[in-house]
Amino acid sequence: MFHGLFRPLRGMISxxxxxxxxxxxxxxxxxxxxQVKAELxxxxxxxxxxxxxxxxxxxxxxxxxxxxxKEGERVIRRERYAGAVCRSFSLACDxxxxxxxTRY
Length: 104
Known about the structure:
Mean pLDDT: 81
Structural class: mainly beta
Low-confidence stretches: 10-20
Shape: elongated
Number of strands: 5
Organism: Caballeronia sordidicola
Protein name: Molecular chaperone (Small heat shock protein)
Family: Belongs to the small heat shock protein (HSP20) family.
InterPro entries: A-crystallin/Hsp20_dom (IPR002068), HSP20-like_chaperone (IPR008978), Small_HSP (IPR031107)
Keywords: Stress response
Strand order of the largest sheet: 3-4-5
């Protein structure tokens, strides 16, 4: 009966528990290699870690946001994610980590 009654109020409440951000990826394949492009907006390259284990690629990133507020201010809405994000996916065959290249 009251399903959704408070839904309009959700956006007005400050939340530090934003849902985990997704890392969007595109994977292409040629005869000799795979190419992975990942979207990590607002992440410094020093905070990105890519690991390869057999045919599994893992992308880890740390997202930091300034949560300070000035005296007399209060947060009405916080949508920008802060924390750690991870995306792992499998490819059809094992990768040679020594021949892998990461570019930012």
